[in-house]
Amino acid sequence: xxxxxxxxxxxxIGSHTCIALIENGCDVTVVDNLSxxxxxxxxxxxxxxxxKPLFHKVDLLDAKGLAAVFKARAFDAVIHFAGFKAVSExxxxxxxxxxxxxxxxxxxxxxxxxHDASTLVFSSSATVYGDAAVSPVTEASPxxxxxxxxxxxxxxxxxxxxxxxxxxxxxxxxxxxFNPAGAHESGLMGEDPRGTPNNLMPCISQAAVGRxxxxxxxGNDYPTPDGTGIRDYxxxxxxxxxxxxxxEHIGRTGAIAAYNLGMGQGHSVLELIAAxxxxxGRKVPYVFTRRRPGDVAVLYAxxxxxxxxxxxxxxxxxxxxxxxxxxxxxxxxxGYEGS
Length: 339
Ligand code: NAD
Ligand code: UFG
Prior knowledge:
Bound molecules: nicotinamide-adenine-dinucleotide, uridine-5'-diphosphate-4-deoxy-4-fluoro-alpha-D-galactose
Radius of gyration: 19 Å
Shape: globular
Largest sheet: 7 strands, parallel
Number of strands: 14
CATH superfamily of the domain at 3-182 and 233-263: NAD(P)-binding Rossmann-like Domain
Strand order of the largest sheet: 3-2-1-4-5-6-11
């Protein structure tokens, strides 16, 4: 049974990936400092899979604490989700972002080297392509992130490339996620950010359930058919399965490789609202506001490389994303800790 360490495993994408890993016979250990998640998700993972991952409440910045995790168990691979992820917050607190995301990754990599754990899947982001990206973006598109958050992702990609150059055993998959959304089909797990959400889907679902008074639609004057921004929404369970495929195929096309994980299709904010209203039977109250600084009009993936090299393809469309999100939101209006 492969032993996998999942950093950030109580977070949104990490927790859903734990389900896919356990269901595929992996033995999962989670490390998380719970700065943006709840340990209650571990019981939900058990409810769904019958197994609770081994959990260490450890900060990646705590090198000693992390060392104890590596001493306790050997890992065949590490999936590294832990990090801060809010673009706007990274602009007001860049040092926190560089420190948490980069120093945390350095601690992790040092311990991996010390313990001969040499297989790593890293959560990168489409944000590495930046504002000027012309969609569909391929992995060869120019890299020019427009925020400190995005720059932490690109810097970590570069650090991992340097480690792979220096250590022939090191194998890395850099997964550039587009817009993760949706929830586990059971309705037991979903996205539950602390505080007011930043991303579109949790704002839509919280507005629909009355937890937020309304959704602010950031701009209706973009050069798109309905004037609102277009993004590539990918179901979190498709994303979770992408990590399994990445582990399966890691190292086949070189020591380190980057992959776009997206549907390859763009949807506007208004299309997503309409799909959500259709799935939930609820009205989503919204108002148009000014554009959000740093947002681009259109961003969607060319996922051909992941389709071909990882034998992976996102299968669930926005209807499923909305149905699953609503099932989760309706059953858990206050998230994990409120239910
Ligand atoms: P999340 O905030 O739900 O999960 C991240 C987890 O990491 C949280 O549980 C948090 O408590 C933990 N964490 C943060 N810093 C830590 C530290 N120093 N030590 C230990 N744990 C720490 O976010 P998510 O949406 O699940 O994202 C997972 C990864 O995917 C992140 O690296 C994020 O940057 C990346 N990503 C997310 C998106 C998105 O839109 N959700 C898009 C592209 C990339
Ligand atoms: N939007 C709104 N109202 C909101 C939130 C978002 O109208 O309350 C709009 C945005 O303007 C954008 C779209 O919805 O057009 C999607 O916005 P998100 O904030 O959900 O996602 P982004 O595309 O801005 O960014 C996300 C993640 C980043 C990641 C990036 C990769 O937040 O971490 O996808 O594409 F890097």
